[in-house]
Design a protein that fits this description.
By secondary structure, the chain is of the alpha/beta class. It has one domain: Alpha-Beta Barrel (TIM Barrel), CATH 3.20.20.70. It contains ten helices and eight strands. The chain has an eight-stranded parallel beta barrel with strand order 1-2-3-4-5-6-7-8, surrounded by seven helices. Helix 4 links the parallel strand 4 and strand 5. Helix 7 runs parallel beside helix 8. The longest helix is centred in the C-terminal third of the chain and has 19 residues. The radius of gyration is 17 Å and the shape is globular. It binds orotidine-5'-monophosphate. Orotidine-5'-monophosphate binds next to strand 8 and helix 9.
Length: about 240
């Protein structure tokens, strides 16, 4: 199992490369894995991703791709060439199949986003789905597993239910992480770092509780300590 520090992925949801580099500097050796999503990717973040990879950090490129198969496949090939570790796609069968072809035998791992952690049953109904959140997460996880996707993004609320279904060959990456007492914001399915690890999450994605904290390093260190304590409880 990885070092607890390497199981924390910090979401660099920041407006510019300068702002991201300032946070990265403050986090120093405390964080080894970063996520770059829409906000930063469209503001120079993909070049920053390559720089981080060059300096030994791991990068999760969070573009949640969803398009016709050919476009997804070619887009994934481009991301694979950056040396990124994870890339998200939406958990639609055509999209997942194309992404698996696109990543080929590169080191890139494809993560399928099951149901966004800002959704609850009412949000799914509003989007036209006749499924509860756990039902749709389970259905998409089964499809992702059959297609050969490398991992799932889900809430830690679903991690315990998914683990026996997917085994240990797929990673579970859980956003919607909130240390006790932290502001929930727009997230609806949240768990503490401890509960996420105990539920079977492999990696925790944390944005605002770290990047918007007065002392991001102290916030990250506290989460890593919580991951470590929970991992020790498991053995
Ligand atoms: O794919 C993701 O990373 C993701 C999936 C999901 O279901 N929920 C979710 O919050 N995320 C991302 O995880 C991060 C969570 O950020 P915070 O809510 O600030 O901790 C954001 O960058 C989201 O884009």
């Amino acid at each position: 199992m990885e070092h607890p520090r390497d199981r924390l992925i910090v979401a660099l949801d920041l407006p510019s490369v300068d702002a991201a580099e300032a946070v990265i500097d403050r986090l120093g050796e405390g964080v080894t894995f970063y996520k770059i999503g829409y906000q930063l990717a469209f503001a120079g973040g993909l070049a920053l991703a390559e720089k981080l990879i060059f300096t030994g950090r791991r990068v999760f490129v969070d573009l949640k791709l969803h398009d016709i198969g050919n476009t997804v496949e070619k887009g994934v090939e481009s991301i694979a060439r950056t040396g990124a570790t994870f890339l998200t796609v939406h958990a639609y069968p055509q999209t997942m199949k194309a992404a698996v072809v696109g990543r080929g035998d590169s080191n890139l791992r494809i993560l399928a986003v099951t149901v966004l952690t800002s959704y609850d049953d009412a949000d799914l109904a509003a989007a036209g789905y006749d499924f509860t959140v756990p039902e749709l997460v389970a259905e998409r996880a089964a499809q992702a597993h059959d297609i050969g996707v490398d991992g799932l993004v889900c809430s830690a609320e679903e991690a315990a239910m998914l683990r026996p279904r997917i085994g240990h060959g797929m990673v579970l990456v859980t956003p919607g992480i909130r240390p006790s007492g932290a502001e929930v914001g727009d997230q609806k399915r949240v768990k503490t770092p401890r509960d996420a690890i105990l539920a079977g999450a492999d990696y925790l994605v944390v944005g605002r509780p770290i990047v918007a904290a007065p002392n991001p390093r102290a916030a990250a260190d506290a989460i890593v300590a919580e991951i470590e304590a929970a991992a020790n409880e498991q053995v």
